Amino acid sequence: MARFAIVVEYIGTNYAGSQVQPDKVTIQSELEKALSTLILGGKNPPRIKSIFSGRTDAGVHSKGQVVHFDSEKPIVASKFLNSINGLLPKDISVKSIHQVDEKFHAQLSARYRVYQYKIVNRKQRSVWDGHSLLVREPLDLERMNKSLSYLLGEHDFTSFKSAKATNPAKDCVVYKAQCTKSGDIITVEIAANRFLYNMVRTIVGTLLMIEHNKLKPEFMKEVLDAKDRTQTGPTISPDGLVLVEVGYKPYQ
After folding, report:
1. Which residues are catalytic?
2. Which residues are within 8 A (CB) of 9 and not within 5 positions of it... i.e. 6 or more apart?
């Protein structure tokens, strides 16, 4: 039995998240169906189980989701990539595959994850905006970065955790929280050892609330310290959110 790690890209718009759910189409269900067909063959092959580095919510996208699975059959990387991408829906693709140590675990071995949220900051939408959030009011990049700076380090992120979350985890270490701008596109990038349910979307929602209401950037720290979800901004649309990287060495 050999273990393989793959990097999966997907547009999450048409899926009920990454994780398998009863009677719903998810990234994992489509990936496992393709893996089972390709590796085991037959009309109704046994299911090959896959382990994701972490779950993404309905509508969230990925450029760097890491997944591992085990196979008793040998795999040739070039042939595998061509074949698996021929079986997968057009909004899911496998970017790379590598054989890894049997102790490697896509989720438990991960040291950090990086998410980006894309904001288009202009008065009118464009058909070329792609997966992003349109914000018509001018945004102040300097103020936004000041607000985000209060999230750096290890904190209790209860304020930014969905009330529907079942995982009791609340502490995260944020290594990077920064906005950059190119033309009228603002990208919010956050790197952390872990993310709570809806955490990035709620952080960005709070960031926009601070800007829209001309609150002081320190309000982000007040919200963080409150450990109270009712104090934050809205959980905004998942369509601008992308998982861009999963790291297995210390964040640098």
Report:
1. 57
2. 62, 63, 64, 65, 92, 93, 94, 95
